Amino acid sequence: MSSIIQLLPDHVANQIAAGEVVQRPASVVKELLENAVDAKATDIKLIIKDAGKSLVQVIDNGAGMSVTDARLCFARHATSKIRQAEDLFSLHTKGFRGEALASIAAIAHMEMKTKQDQEELGTHIVIEGSKFISQEVAVLPKGTSFAVKNLFFNIPARRNFLKSDTVEFRHVMDEFQRVALAHPNIHFTFYHNGSEMYNLPAAGYRQRIVGIMSGKTNEKLVPVNEETEIINVQGFVCKPEFAKKNRGEQFFFVNDRFIKSGYLHHAVMAAYDGLLKDGSQPSYFLFLQVPPNTIDINIHPTKTEIKFDDEQALYAILRASIKHSLGQFNVAPVLDFDRDANLDTPYHYKDLEGETPTIQVDGTFNPFTDDKTNQHYSKSGSGSGYAGSSGSGSGSYSGYSKRVEPTASWESLYVGLETETESIESAPFTFENEEVTSSLFNDEDVEQAIQKTYQIHKKYIVSPIKSGMVIVDQQRAHQRILYEQFLLNMTVNQASSQQLLFPLNLFYSSDEMTLIEELKPSLETTGFVFDEAQTDHIVISGIPVNITESEVSMVIEQLLSDLQDGIPASSYSQNDTIAKSMAKSLAVKTGSYLTEKEQDNLVNGLFACKDPNISPFQKPTFITMRVEDIDKKFAL
């Protein structure tokens, strides 16, 4: 009987391993950039074409490889990073399993050029699908250059699963940003289809973050710095007022390696407790340094998940350090019991005692006496300096006194008041009878006039109908109305715009600007008018009529969040996604008070839609309750 179990050929094993290591062009970018960093390079260039599907090339000025190493680096599990199993717990490099180059070479056309500094000549190797095509000596500069062409050329099924160029380019951009942020001491350059996307000279962490995220990132950053025996935390968090809807600008780096950790993210959110709006996400760039023997990196194929020995302590330290930074830079409200120096007594007044003011009063003055007494008061006031006047001002008061003509005694004002009051009370009053006229409306009109809508808990609108009543969800109903309006405007291209007196300048990161550039034609059909678009901001001079100026930033931010996974390929799907996103942003929210007129307009607008039964997100917009159903409730 023949054996059933057989060893796989190397090229088949490499293709299977490539399924874990290489999922898309961004995976190739990550592996090649990390190899360049491990080679101690100070200048790294990334060149891609067609979002990496046609070409991914990484050029560095690192240590390079000898002829033997150049040939051996494509073998499976061949690595220079570790020698024994214990080295896995003291890793200081990016890659260590020796699978990347072998997996990439198995599914692409690969070309490598490398040369060490002490050697006069370098090595040029060409591989296609794990097969060595050529190896020759060449005159090369110091360092290594990897060019990966026609990815998945021998696995068409995998190639068909790749997304559009826009989506794949965004994944490549993410991997480049992660490596560039972790190593600000290295000069990075990024080219796509011949255009320079990034040119990041060696700098500090803050300069590197601003260079990658662009816009007004610098004014958003709050530094975080904490050193303990367990962990050293440094980096930046963003102020709460700049929080976004999506989680795009959230980066954790442990020992210069990008990781994803929901546990540590919860610690950051706990530090922002009470400072963020519902659904908002803070941006942060945190660089953690821990002893290598306290973490386990080799638990995920992409090495983006790490196991910590003492997660609870890291959680507490991270949360406290961020909360301290927010309070230190007056971002978070704090109680300050220190004395305000501005309220202290000035130094030259410290030992002086205040003088008690003296007041002189003329005890003989009576306003109800005759004119002679007033003349006496005037004389006494002029001589004594009335009301505390100083001696130098005595006599000046008499200049303001004037003679008052004698008037009747004040008692005469009340003479005859009682008799007049009695005459008023005894006067007869006549009342005009109200004439009752017939109603202007018949009974049916009165019944219809009484019918109206009611708002319950600022969430539902109740309106009576013939068979009972209808209960409308105000948020979902408004979403359906706005969705159909936007979709109609984008289809017919007859959207109205309102011109702004002062154009809006909105700042975004470079990858967000790339997305906005692709969305611009669709946004213009909804009523937006763009004046210009720079590398880090856009200028909007006109907006749709049903959007206020203060809502523009919120609408675009929500749109970018909804399209972070990529823009649909077809124009209808793209318009549908934009209409849904804008409807979700602008719809009246649960908890908003609506006037009676607004309630009527909302109900009438809903039932004027083509499909009033469901919202754009396939949720019911209203329910009906018949009178029979209500009677059954009371019959129990």
UniProtKB/TrEMBL annotation:
Q: Does the keyword Hydrolase apply?
A: yes
Domain named DNA mismatch repair protein S5: which ranges? 209-327
Question: What InterPro entries does UniProt report for this protein, alphabetically?
Answer: DNA_mismatch_repair_CS, DNA_mismatch_repair_MutL, DNA_mismatch_S5_2-like, HATPase_C_sf, MutL/Mlh/PMS, MutL/Mlh/Pms-like, MutL_C, MutL_C_dimsub
Is the Cytoplasm keyword given for this protein? no
Q: Which domain of life is it from?
A: Bacteria
Could you tell me where the Polar residues compositional bias lies? 358-367
Keyword entries, A-Z: DNA damage, DNA repair, Endonuclease, Hydrolase, Nuclease
Q: Which GO terms describe its cellular component?
A: mismatch repair complex
Chain positions covered by the region annotation Disordered: 358-398
Matches recorded under SMART domains: DNA_mis_repair, MutL_C
Stretches assigned to the MutL C-terminal dimerisation domain = 452-594
* One of the GO BP terms on file: mismatch repair
The annotated regions of Gly residues compositional bias extend over: 382-396
* Molecular-function annotations in GO: ATP binding; ATP hydrolysis activity; ATP-dependent DNA damage sensor activity; endonuclease activity; mismatched DNA binding
> What CDD domains is this protein classified in?
HATPase_MutL-MLH-PMS-like, MutL_Trans
**A Pfam family the protein falls into:** DNA_mis_repair
Question: Which family is it part of?
Answer: Belongs to the DNA mismatch repair MutL/HexB family.
HAMAP family per the UniProt record, alphabetical:
DNA_mis_repair (MF_00149)
- Its job: This protein is involved in the repair of mismatches in DNA. It is required for dam-dependent methyl-directed DNA mismatch repair. May act as a 'molecular matchmaker', a protein that promotes the formation of a stable complex between two or more DNA-binding proteins in an ATP-dependent manner without itself being part of a final effector complex.
Q: What is this protein called?
A: DNA mismatch repair protein MutL
Q: Which organism is it from?
A: Flavobacterium cupreum
